[in-house]
Amino acid sequence: MKQKGLVLRGMLLTGMLAGVLPRLMPMMQAVQIGTAQETTAEPPAEEEPLPQYAEEVIVTAPTAAMPELPAVYEPPADSGAIAWESESSRAMHFSRPYQNTGSGGGTIIRKQFGVQTGTQFIRLSGAGQVRNCTFWTNADLRAESEKPPALNVPEDSSPAVLLYHTHTTESFPLTASDTYGENFSFRTTEPDKNMVAVGNAIAAALESEGIRTVHAAEIHDYPKWNGSYNNSAETIKAILRQYPSICAVLDIHRDAISTGKTVTAPVCTVNGQQAAQIMIISGCDNGKLNMPDYRENFHFACALQRTAEQMFPGLTRPILFDYRKYNQDLTYGSLLIEVGSQGNSLEEACYAGTLVGKALAATLRGMKEERS
Q1: How many Cβ atoms sit within 10 Å of the Cβ of residue 105?
Q2: 67 prior amide bond cis, ω within 30
Q3: Closest CA to 186 of 350, 342, 346
Q4: For 43-52, what is each residue's pLDDT tens digit?
């Protein structure tokens, strides 16, 4: 009986492996990125509970179709930004193809998040809001928001901004719609359809305003999602060693806002064109995160939020000030920016990126003028 039990368990194990190994082989064959070996990671930003919004403005989706994107990705040659990506990352560009086919996937609701009310929300002077989820009192945090950022913006043409993507493969529907396909995974390694495309738009806007930018298109969340923040930390460190003049480090993501099969796309209209709304996340140390300089990041977040909302009313959702790390301990001027959600079109997200780039350029110029 013992021998028969061993044979039976062996047969079951063989059957399980036969079913699992074909799914594991692409992961085993894929190029590993970074050096992280841990089995746990910070929760991704999009998994956070959503605030209850006080005002919602329903926005009708545009009907114009977006032009076809190129089949082979080529970084914009005229942006002027310094491109940074390893060969191992480039080799994975088409490992996870873009999918948004079929019907019956779910519904996309498009709406603008307006000014929020409630005890968590603080109005910034000038424009913009902060959602306070920390031990700080609202009065003390608002006073802190008035302090100028301590960023050392370079006076010459040295690189001032680093753009990177911890969750590089986050993607968008290619055109605005009120539905998404049943096969839409909301992720792809194709850089003309994921966060790299949004980063390119931000970089181009910065460069057009005379702000030298490094854009890292490195894939950090594929083939393994787990460890993506450790992977992107290694990218940040390497680039800062190469370009020590960088004063602002922005992790560009897209949010995920959904209930069941209903996805919410945050949108606004700027100069007659629809853009995805953005949300800045600035981390606070609760005594356990080893972020002694988190207030400097918050000063920068408030300055950028204020400028963006003054230049492009409606573009921003309130800054999320909460107990988050997201590599914001590595240098001053570190922020995470959520651009839209998985329901926004790529066109809306890239237009939002252009607006973010212009607002960031104005913010950095203002810092230089105050210092001189």
Answers
A1: 16
A2: no
A3: 342
A4: 444 333 333 3
What's the pTM? 0.81
The token duo for 283 is 């981390």
- Residue-number span of the structural domain to which 362 is assigned: 31-371
333 beta partners: none
- Does 334 fall in a domain? yes
Helix, strand, or coil (residue 216): strand
> Given the DSSP bridges, would you call strands 106-113 and 179-180 parallel, antiparallel or unpaired?
antiparallel
User: Where do we find the tokens 């990218």?
Assistant: 235
Amino acid letter, residue 346: L
Residue 77 placed within a domain: yes
Tokens linked to 222: 């594929």
Torsion, Cα of 168, 209, 273, 180 (10° steps): -10
Query: Helices (H) and strands (E) in the chain — how many of each?
Result: 7, 15
Number of domains in the chain: 1
DSSP 282: E
Token pair of 250 as six digits: 């922005």
CA distances to 46, 261, 345 from 194, rounded to whole Å, are 15, 21, 11
Q: For residue 40, is pLDDT > 60?
A: no
pLDDT for 272 equals 96
